[in-house]
Design brief:
mainly beta, Immunoglobulin-like, five-stranded mixed β-sheet, 40 strands, globular, PKD-like
Amino acid sequence: MVNKLFHLICSDFKYCIMRNMMKFQVIFLLFFGMVACYDKDENYEYKPKTELSVILNGLKESYISLEDTLYIDPEIMVSNSEHELKYEWSIFMAYDKDKVPKVVPVTVIGEGKVLRYPVTEKPNSYTVMLRVVNKNTAQEVCAHVDIKVKNKLSEGFYVMKEVEGNSDLDLHFLDGEKLENLLYRKNGVRLAGAPNSCSVLLKYSYIDTATAAFVPTTALALATKEDFHIVDVADLGTIYSHKNMFYGEVPRGEESLFACFHLYGTSYFSDKGTYFCFYDLIWGDGGSGKFPVKTAINGGCKPNINICSDGSNVFFFDELNGRFLCIDANGELHDYPDQEDVTENGIRHSLLFLGNIGGKQMAILRDASDAEKLWLYELELVVEDPWWGGTMANPGNPITKISEISSEKLRKAECFCSNETSARILYFVMEGQVYAYDIDNETETRLTLDGLGDGEEIRFIRHRYWTGALDPKENFDCLVVGTQAGNNYKICMYDLIGGMTNGNVTRLFTGKGRAVGLQFVTLGFEVTSAVQGDYPVSY
């Protein structure tokens, strides 16, 4: 217990330092921009820039890779009439609080005053810099601007679906257009096995074999009954598959369930256990993206496919030992101690749902002896950090209340999801109808939703949202309902206010195959997006 508390203190101390370091980095970069380009002579004496200045104008916020040309005609002001200027343009991944120059090399893209550069970079955020040197005075000035590079794959709603027993992806764009069967288009084959889950790794790190550099990117983790792939959203190329994503021997006879993003890496879950790969893009430390040996814990574990997270720590139910477990921000696997009044270990009931709700967590379990009986577990998996402020994984028993569910409709529910942002509401489906269940008042309300036709089976419901402050045009907060009719899927999105909806369809996606879920991707993702509550921590 002492070791666990010490580890949690250290983990949270690092997180607290990280949060303050983001502020220090911004101050440092501002200071660096002011002092980095001073006059200098042969004796390396520095003085403020007074004779040479550069202004970059006319840039767009984003450019499309392999289509757009970056054109910049800078405004150069030189007070000394006798001058000979040297120009150097460069581009590199934008250095902000989650991307720093040392992660990837700097590329020189021009040596003339006017830049005309066909954009070929992969989708990401980049800094374009112009360095101007007055050869007569040795004065040097730098000017830079941040841009986004996009392509058709870097923004939109990804749908994982089953096609003839295997898995594929459709991408629905914000303008209503779509690309179908992307894995088949890319590789000529679909991913083997029916789908289990599609999760978004907001920031993932791997090594580019061509440059030997660490590459930060947004990736999709695709788990099926027979395989597991991590694919780069930039081009949907496979970074790793189950065959080569491990150090050492490849685990045999396991079924991949999902992968989860953490503040300092990624965890992988199968029905045999968990793995963790470490990287720290906040501090600029990339990683290979490969997974070492299985995470160890007394008694082993068998993860249930339902998980929840606070964006840093990931929580799940161990079916082998009947207990809730936590993988913290640094990849260590924790169990919880029993208390006299509440038993945390050896739970015999079957988990049906686990999710975030109203700043805390909840689980629904089916009684081990009576299949008609459901139990609602209210959990406090995350608590206030008494030492450093903010939050931390609960070091004590996370079960705060257990109650039998009295709602007849909820007891017959077929699928669930919770409101993660604005209300203590559980959404569920019963006999083709969607309901909102108020946890505190124990009341349910049938939702009247447009767009759902006769003969359509509701296959899944999700709470999906994106509230990133730097990406306001793409923000949304919606209840998602996915239906199936024959070989056709339909996904309707409904705006939420205070956890409820007026039932009007905000977005509608259709396609071929059996859809199992929907995930949103954008270039606006940051390492801290989930921790700050801007992006779902459910899968």
